[in-house]
């Protein structure tokens, strides 16, 4: 601020300077020996009608030794100021302003060493300002770091050297995930992995390289590549001093070569306005193209026209079977500990499999390696906190995170009397342990536990929880060869108690265990091939549980829904092939097999008949470990990335997926008691193939990125449900389901802006999703075998998200979500039975509910911007559903007193104001 | 309220009402095709059986459109055929089936031929045994409303079912309620075109009425899969105390019908599609499939169901009980007479109390004097004085 004021002052003074030249009348005479500036000035002021304006510290080391013989003020000041770094402005008749720096350097300071004395040189140098420093440094030849990798004796003649580097944060020792190393000579770049490592293949030589990471000062350096080797580099946080021109937002990063890959940044999670002020990673995902949900209060997401059970959620390799708390209003992972969140919805790498539509991969932070750190937040319904502790500095760190809710006080204020007497709560815990043993070995340990509880007015009680842990060991044999082995366990269980009617009260407990071993080997063979090979073995052990009578009055008979065991084994191999600077191929193959294991009792039915209890030909009992059925599925994963020019590229891909576990859900939204089930001898595994093509364009000067993606997906053996299917009635699920085909296609457009004061994106998707269940016979049909839209078919979806940095401390964010109403089956006609009207329904999903439009805004107020402060916090005040629109969730008709009335049910019908508070150790920038 | 911490105040979000249910009127469809509706249940204990044939109508303009001129007959499993000629009431086809034919184990099938010559036939429906009706009783219940401060009182009715190994597992209850209600004032003074009239003794002949309504709710029970063939405290309907229904005397007639499993599925799906409010998670409507098919095209299924049931009935009388209040003050209030009388005739003069409990003479609405105008009858039902 000081400098700005000075420049403004200078400008005006300069203007007035031009006009006031003629009044230079005062002349100075005298001998001045060994005076301080202040003494000199007081003498002059006493004798002459002059006044000097200056700051003590600027002039504190000036000694005045001069003889003045009829000098004009200008001449005197020139003489006086010449040996110093100061400047002056003389405003006639008698005001002299001393300025702290020269308008331009007349001569280099070294020349005046001799005339004034050595001590004043130091004084002069201390007086150099930042601007001058920058100028001087800028004139010197670029002082660049050179990093030497490997040694000459290890060099292999004529062969490429494979180098591996590790990029860390200088301050806390945390590895930087997603940092970019870019070699301008080859227009080639690479990105660091989850452990902060990046690998490149280069011929021995010296290359200039640029190292970039969001929020850090960019480093330009030279890589002196002599042979295979390791190197490490630390990047420093970039502190933007107040008053300078700021660059907000992310630096543009080179796009990866996978179409359909979305990266959700932690920064966007902090900015997006949400229902209860809590950061929610799943809500951000739903603003991206191709990802929709059935509606508010729905716990699942639908990616590219696929069912909610076709998405695989990983947190640090632990699969999570229920990805949200409280009917989808909150995500089931504390967003504060997320480091990286990627969604693969188009080209899915061969190392992932098991679900048809997408993989949501969440990687957590690893923990501060140097200092204790903590952050958290409080919102009207929940609170969360995490702490990071370095156990062994630089080597071992630990994160503990906890989250809980307290929503009872809101439920008591609702209109609906059933909800008013209900309780809902959730909590989750997570622990991360990261062992950075040396540059060749890392071990990561992760454990997670979440639990939900919902009690609807004493009628129905739902409890469910996820429990999981993973241990990963990564070993680098050499810079180009890395292996990774993980052991993972995950458990999903729930309990339902239904007691609205004493005679029919029941309780049901369900338990799913998932044990997994993954291993992979990544080998950067040479500049052209980056191979990965691995295997993945999963043992599913699930108990569908028993439905037992609850309470003494219940007349329900116990039903044992059965246990299931299955072994899913996969092998994969893939190669990222680089053919020149413009063309990249991805060739991958995943071969997955599934074996259904006993103990189990399996029925067989009379051929050509409807599969139900009346057509059982016989049963067979299998013992523990017996093989009952087996499926083998090769899955092709291929893609191509062609860079037309620096800023535009085309990508194509073909992806085949298979799925061996699916969810039994005959409701439109996912319910907390929907059971996961394995495929078996009667229920074949769903399979899909997706073709996608995309065009990507970057406009770096404006910080804009645009992308167009088209996809077409075909899936077989999709599980649909017969009318009135009851999954609590029998262990023989094949009597309640039907399998059909699902076809989806779409065009996704996204425009995003990542720099400047205004950041955000606009995404528009046009897509359709249809299901056809057309069996050989009438009983195998749904909707008479004709194709019908899926429950989440939304032809037009528009999402815009915008974050405006009003100042460093205030930011305004807004998002607009629009989508076509989801399909619904509506009454087509009315008929009378016994003088009462009843409705006859149309074809399935033949109509649509009204469109969904929602506008949210939020204001973020950051705490002060002091550089050194123990704790920083920010408030978020937001309004969810600003326009108060009652977006329909479903339509239903009631026959009331001889009349037919239509009703629209909305989950949220008013604007909801919410305030939350978040805090963390450190200052504003520290993240 | 001295100093409320302003942060606490600011932290309270405006969440007084979150979710809501609103009326919704769908756009009328363009290509509407009417379907044939055949509704009939053969029941025991009745002199005449009735089959009603109609057409479905648009949701925007629902009305009962009868279909005339059909040839209707019912055959039993033994080759007997019972004709059902059309009655004076268009669309209603009446026939007689002797009690001897209506025994458990008998089966029946319906034949319908429309004017256009299309033949419909139903599946064979079995007549299943029906046990005596179990206890029918009630409890005083207070229910909450949308406004947390207001609660409602009323009677919740229940029924017990006691079957045995010989009875079937599927039943339906049809409820008919009858209640006594009174007008507010007897006929005393009135002004008509003939002039003023004043009776010596007020006329109470239109003061007490009885209204009978068939309840539209579908109540079905399945004990399939239960450890015993019985059920206690099945929830029937709820009658609130804000009307006169429970003020004087109330009678409930319960008809218990035995059903086949197929008939039960039909009624249960019909109930779910039409009488159940939305489930939090949403469900696709069930495919309510009748059992009457076009002979030449089995995909052409008529709406409605042809069923056969044995019926047992029970009637209970309900007397006013403590805990119910009858807030009738709003309904019938004498209108204060203006200087100029209204033009219509006749005008009825009645006495009423104002806010300060002073009497005044005002005009009474005809419906408050002639109870039959509210839809009832002054004829006392024969069972009314039973216990």
Task: Give a topology summary.
The complex is a heterodimer of chains A (927) and B (387).
Chain A (H helix, E strand, L loop, with lengths): L1 H18 L7 E10 H11 L3 E3 L2 H4 L3 E10 H9 L5 E5 L3 E5 L13 H4 L1 H9 L3 H10 L5 E5 L11 E9 L10 E4 L4 E4 L5 E6 L2 E8 L6 E7 L3 E7 L25 E4 L1 H6 L9 H5 L5 E2 L9 E2 L7 E5 L2 E3 L3 E2 L4 E2 L6 E7 L13 E7 L8 E6 L3 E11 L3 E10 L2 H4 L5 H4 L2 E16 L2 E16 L3 E19 L2 E18 L7 E19 L4 E15 L2 E4 L9 E2 L2 E17 L3 E15 L2 E6 L10 E7 L4 E19 L2 E11 L2 E4 L10 E4 L8 E13 L4 E18 L15 E17 L4 E15 L15 E2 L6 E10 L4 E10 L3 E2 L2 E7 L2 E6 L5 E2 L3 E11 L8 E10 L7 E9 L2 E8 L5 E10 L6
Parallel strand pairs in A: 2-5, 6-12, 7-13, 17-22
Antiparallel strand pairs in A: 1-3, 4-5, 7-10, 8-9, 8-11, 11-12, 14-21, 15-16, 17-18, 19-20, 21-22, 23-24, 23-57, 24-25, 25-26, 26-27, 27-28, 28-29, 29-30, 30-31, 30-32, 31-34, 32-33, 34-35, 35-38, 36-37, 38-39, 39-42, 40-41, 42-43, 43-44, 44-45, 45-46, 45-47, 47-48, 48-53, 49-52, 50-51, 53-54, 54-57, ...
Chain B lengths: L5 H6 L8 E4 L12 E8 L5 E7 L1 E2 L6 E2 L4 E6 L4 E4 L7 E4 L11 E7 L5 E4 L2 E2 L9 E9 L6 E12 L7 E13 L4 E6 L2 E9 L4 E7 L4 E4 L7 E11 L8 E10 L2 H15 L16 E3 L2 E5 L4 E4 L1 E8 L16 E2 L10 E7 L5 E6 L23
Parallel strand pairs in B: 2-23
Antiparallel strand pairs in B: 2-3, 3-5, 3-8, 6-7, 6-9, 9-10, 9-11, 10-21, 12-13, 13-19, 14-17, 14-18, 14-20, 15-16, 15-26, 20-24, 21-22, 25-27, 26-27
């Amino acid at each position: 601020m000081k400098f700005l004021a000075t420049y403004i002052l200078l400008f005006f003074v300069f203007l007035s300077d031009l006009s006031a030249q003629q009044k230079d009348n005062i002349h100075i005479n005298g001998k001045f020996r060994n005076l301080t500036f202040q003494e000199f000035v007081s003498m002059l002021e006493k004798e002459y009608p002059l006044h000097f304006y200056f700051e003590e510290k600027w002039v504190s080391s000036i000694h005045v030794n001069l003889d003045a013989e009829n000098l004009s003020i200008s001449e005197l000041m020139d003489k006086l100021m010449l040996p110093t770094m100061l400047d002056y402005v003389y405003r006639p008749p008698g005001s002299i302003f001393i300025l702290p720096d020269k308008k331009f350097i007349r001569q280099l300071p070294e020349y005046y060493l001799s005339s004034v004395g050595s001590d004043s040189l130091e004084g002069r140098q201390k007086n150099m300002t930042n601007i001058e420093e920058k100028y001087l440094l800028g004139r010197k030849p670029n002082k660049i770091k050179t990093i030497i990798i490997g040694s000459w004796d290890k060099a292999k003649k004529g062969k490429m050297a494979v180098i591996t580097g590790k990029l860390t944060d200088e301050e806390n020792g945390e590895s930087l995930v997603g940092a970019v190393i870019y070699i301008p000579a080859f227009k080639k770049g690479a990105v660091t992995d989850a452990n902060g490592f990046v690998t490149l293949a280069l011929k021995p030589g010296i290359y200039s390289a640029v190292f970039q990471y969001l929020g850090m000062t960019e480093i330009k350096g030279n890589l002196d590549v002599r042979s295979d080797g390791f190197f490490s580099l630390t990047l420093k946080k970039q502190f933007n001093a107040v008053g300078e021109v700021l660059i907000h937002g992310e630096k543009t990063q080179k796009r990866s070569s996978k179409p359909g890959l979305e990266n959700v940044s932690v920064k966007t999670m902090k900015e997006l306005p949400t229902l209860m002020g809590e950061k929610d990673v799943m809500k951000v995902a739903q603003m991206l193209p191709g990802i929709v949900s059935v509606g508010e209060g729905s716990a699942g997401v639908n990616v590219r026209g696929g069912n909610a059970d076709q998405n695989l959620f990983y947190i640090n390799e632990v699969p999570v079977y229920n990805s949200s708390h409280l009917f989808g209003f909150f995500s089931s992972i504390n967003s504060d500990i997320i480091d990286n969140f990627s969604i693969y919805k188009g080209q899915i790498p061969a190392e992932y499999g098991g679900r048809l539509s997408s993989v949501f991969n969440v990687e957590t932070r690893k923990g501060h390696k140097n200092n204790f750190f903590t952050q958290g937040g409080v919102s009207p319904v929940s609170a969360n906190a995490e702490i990071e502790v370095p156990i062994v500095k630089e080597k071992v760190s630990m994160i503990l995170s906890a989250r809980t809710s307290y929503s009872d006080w809101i439920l008591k204020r609702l209109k609906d009397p059933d909800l008013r007497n209900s309780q809902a709560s959730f909590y989750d815990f997570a622990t991360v342990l990261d062992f950075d043993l040396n540059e060749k070995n890392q071990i990561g340990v992760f454990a997670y536990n979440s639990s939900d509880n919902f009690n609807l007015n004493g009628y129905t009680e739902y409890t469910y929880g996820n429990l999981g842990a993973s241990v990963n060991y990564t070993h680098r044999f050499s810079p180009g060869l890395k292996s990774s082995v993980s052991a993972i366990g995950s458990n999903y269980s729930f309990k339902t108690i239904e007691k609205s009617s004493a005679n029919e009260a029941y309780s049901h407990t369900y338990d799913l265990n998932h044990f997994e071993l993954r291993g992979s080997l990544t080998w950067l063979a040479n500049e052209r091939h980056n191979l990965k090979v691995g295997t993945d073995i999963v043992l599913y052990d699930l108990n569908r549980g028993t439905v037992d009578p609850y309470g003494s009055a219940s007349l329900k008979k116990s039903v044992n829904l059965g246990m299931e065991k299955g072994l899913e084994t996969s092998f994969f191999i893939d190669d990222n092939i680089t053919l020149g600077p413009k063309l990249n191929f991805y060739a991958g193959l995943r071969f997955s097999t599934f074996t259904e294991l006993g103990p189990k009792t399996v029925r067989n039915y009379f051929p050509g008949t409807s599969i139900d209890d009346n057509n059982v030909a016989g049963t067979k009992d299998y013992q523990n470990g017996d093989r009952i059925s087996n499926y083998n599925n090769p899955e092709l994963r291929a893609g191509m990335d062609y860079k037309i020019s620096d800023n535009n590229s085309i990508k194509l891909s073909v992806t085949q997926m298979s799925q061996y576990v699916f969810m039994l859900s005959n409701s439109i939204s996912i319910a907390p008691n929907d059971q996961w089930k394995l495929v078996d001898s009667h229920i074949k595994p769903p399979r899909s193939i997706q073709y996608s093509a995309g065009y990507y364009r970057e406009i770096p000067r404006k910080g804009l990125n645009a992308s167009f993606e088209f996809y077409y997906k075909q899936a077989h053996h999709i599980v649909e449900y017969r009318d009135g299917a009851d999954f609590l009635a029998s262990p023989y699920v094949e009597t309640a389901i039907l399998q059909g085909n699902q076809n989806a296609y779409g065009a996704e457009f996204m425009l995003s802006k990542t720099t400047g004061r205004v950041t955000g994106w606009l995404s528009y998707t046009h897509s359709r999703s249809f299901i056809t269940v057309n069996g050989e016979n009438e009983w195998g049909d749904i909707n008479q075998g004709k194709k019908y839209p899926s429950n989440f078919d939304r032809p037009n979806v528009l999402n815009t998200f915008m974050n405006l940095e009003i100042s460093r401390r205030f930011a305004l964010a807004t998002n607009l979500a629009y989508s076509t109403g989801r399909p619904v089956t509506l009454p087509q006609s009315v008929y009378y039975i016994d003088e009462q009207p009843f409705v006859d329904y149309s074809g399935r999903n033949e109509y649509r509910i009204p469109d969904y439009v929602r506008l949210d805004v939020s204001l973020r107020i950051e705490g002060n911007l002091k550089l050194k402060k123990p704790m920083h916090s920010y408030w978020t005040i937001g309004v969810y559903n600003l326009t108060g629109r009652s977006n329909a969730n479903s339509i239903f008709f009631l026959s009331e007193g001889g009349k037919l009335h239509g009703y629209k049910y909305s989950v949220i019908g008013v604007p909801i104001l919410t305030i939350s508070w978040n805090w963390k150790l450190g200052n504003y920038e520290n993240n | 309220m001295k100093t409320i911490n302003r942060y606490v105040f600011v932290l309270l979000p405006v969440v007084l009402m979150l979710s809501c249910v609103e009326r919704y009127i769908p756009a009328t469809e363009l290509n509407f095709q009417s379907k044939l509706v055949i509704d009939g249940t053969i029941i025991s204990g009745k002199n005449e059986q009735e089959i009603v044939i109609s057409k479905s109508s648009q949701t925007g303009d629902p009305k009962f459109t009868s279909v005339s001129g059909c040839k209707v007959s019912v055959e039993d499993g033994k080759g007997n055929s019972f004709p059902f000629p059309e009655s004076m009431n268009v669309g209603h086809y009446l026939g007689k089936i002797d009690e001897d034919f209506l025994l458990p184990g008998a089966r029946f099938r319906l034949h319908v031929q429309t004017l256009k010559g299309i033949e419909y036939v139903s599946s064979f429906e079995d007549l299943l045994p029906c046990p005596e009706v179990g206890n029918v009783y009630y409890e005083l219940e207070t229910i909450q409303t949308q406004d947390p401060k207001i609660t409602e009182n009323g009677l919740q009715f229940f029924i017990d079912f006691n079957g045995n190994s010989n009875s079937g597992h599927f039943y339906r209850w049809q409820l008919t309620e009858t209640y006594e209600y009174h007008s507010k004032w007897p006929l005393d003074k009135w002004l008509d075109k003939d002039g003023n009239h004043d009776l010596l003794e007020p006329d109470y002949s239109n003061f007490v009425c009885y209204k009978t309504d068939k309840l539209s709710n579908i109540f079905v029970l399945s004990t399939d899969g239960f450890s015993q063939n019985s059920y206690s405290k099945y929830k029937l309907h709820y009658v609130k105390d804000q009307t006169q229904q429970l003020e004087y005397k109330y009678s409930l007639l319960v008809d218990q019908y035995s059903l086949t499993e197929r008939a039960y599925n039909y009624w249960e799906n019909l109930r779910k599609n039409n009488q159940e409010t939305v489930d939090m998670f949403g469900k696709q409507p069930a495919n309510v499939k009748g059992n009457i098919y076009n002979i030449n095209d089995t995909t052409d299924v008529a709406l409605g169901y042809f069923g056969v049931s044995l019926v047992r009935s029970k009637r209970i009388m309900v007397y006013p009980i403590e805990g119910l209040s009858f807030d009738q003050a709003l309904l019938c209030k004498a209108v204060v007479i203006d200087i100029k009388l209204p033009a219509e005739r006749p005008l009825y003069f009645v006495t009423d109390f104002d806010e300060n409990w002073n009497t005044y003479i005002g005009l009474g609405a005809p419906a408050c004097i002639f109870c039959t105008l509210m839809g009832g009858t002054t004829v006392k039902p024969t069972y009314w004085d039973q216990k």
